[in-house]
Amino acid sequence: MKGLVRALALALIVSTLPATRSPSAETTGGGLWRDGQLAGRPVEARLEPTGQVLRGKTVACARCHGSEAEGGGEGGVRAPALVRRGARSPGLDEATLARALTFGIGLDGRRLHPAMPRYALESAAVDALLAELDRLARRSIEGVAPRRLRFATVWPAGPVRESLHALVERWRHLILVEGGIFHREVELLVLPNETTAALATLGRQPALALLLDDAPADLLAALRGRELPELFPLRPAYGREPGSVRRLGAPLAVEARLLLEALIDDLDGRGTIDIVAEPELVATLEPLLERHPALVRTSGPGVDALLLLRPPAGARARRIYAPVDLLARVGPALPAAAERIVVTDPRALPPGSPEPSPRARRLLGDPATAGPLLRHAGAALLVLETALRRLGRDVTRARLLAALDELGTVTTGLVPPWSARPGPEAGAAVIRIDRRTGERSIDPWRRPGEAPNAGRRLEDENRRSER
Ligand code: HEC
After folding, report:
1. Structural domains in the chain, sorted by start
2. Does residue 113 have its Cβ closer than 6 Å to ligand 1?
3. pLDDT tens profile 118-143
4. DSSP H helices in 66-104
């Protein structure tokens, strides 16, 4: 024991935390773990029994224990994993960690192999390391591994799934040949369509997020119970959604507003209309409706126009106004009596949109010939990739969602400008279809409240946002 105390006394005192707690525990722990840095300076540690002093990266915990604390080691000595199944190793707390670091005593009380260096860290630094270990543990149950980021998906069967799958595979390949995103390759786990089987698979192989377009309703509900980020469902939502969903494209409220504007224009502001929608959505339309008192809201057959914003209850009308994706879903159930159908297309590109990037071309070939859904999916992957690259190595679900939100407005040249926080940039094109003659007229992409044909040029937009 005496020897040990002397060794400790001789042990070099490493840099201490600054008095002010300016760097957060998160960056302190991460810096120590990954880089052997503390408060911007290389940490020092001593090797037993020679007393050799090593600094910085050489004594960074990650070098031996692995970047995700999954265990590792060089030259036959194994540094154990310090996290297990989403938590730090049993018995690892402030006291036992401090004991291992200063005295080289293991969690089970035995003397550790001399390959584990001796550190002299203040308790704040030990706490920060524990916090970092907790973060790493969480990552491991969020589908993030040292060399891999796992995403999961459920796609409807058939050609849609095949083409989306092929696209994701191409994206994965592009990333792989570039050496990964911060050395991690992307994995896509295709879940079975059946709920119990899907949840079991996800339990065994946790995923960072879901790349989802469509899923059976009960499976979707079960997946949503797990609070996995749901990235870029490609079609608009027709009801309420959890906060972990990041949808690509204009929110339904924007389409609703554009459709109502078209309807008011077509009816010259007078007549009977029926609105089939969630009450929250109707509430967003109220101010516009109030400005047109000659427009009477009623329900039942024979109204002049029907504004359809969720799957219909068999209403009939001569004119129907609906998002194109909703009509595609409703399909044959669409009242045959309608003479005129007006749809919004949220995938139409605003005038002056930039050309698709070279990366978009590598992903999609000629984007002009790719269908709207593939263009949409391609844009979703590019947005996701941008967010992931911003995160660096420190990928967690929460940080991914935050990074998406922080991207601001993203222009891909494949879909209209996108922002995770729906902003004034959202819009759609309005298309009028005469069902008897088959004639179509298309108003170019615009935002709610803008006169038709007033689509602002994106360059102006970018210039304005730079100021
Ligand atoms: C140069 C390699 C190396 C570095 C750097 C290193 N360790 Fe270790 N560590 C080891 C080895 C090897 C063992 C296992 C020794 C044994 O089993 O006898 C170990 C054991 C441990 C243990 C005991 C685990 C148990 O189950 O008893 C803890 C805790 C630990 N290290 C934490 C850290 C922390 C925290 C850092 C960074 C501040 C760090 N280590 C840096 C090599 C290293």
Report:
1. 2-137 (no CATH), 144-246 (3.40.50.2300), 252-345+427-466 (3.40.50)
2. yes
3. 999 999 999 999 999 998 888 888 99
4. 94-103
